[in-house]
Amino acid sequence: MAVGIGVLGAGTVGGTLVRRLTTEHDVVAAKTGLDLEVRRVAVRSLDKQRDFAVGDGILTDRPDDLLEDPSIDLIVEVMGGQDPAGRLVLAALEAGKPVVTANKELIAAQGPELIAAAERSGVPLLFEAAVGGGIPIIRPLAETL
Question: Considering the chain, what is the average pLDDT of its residues?
Answer without folding.
Answer: 89
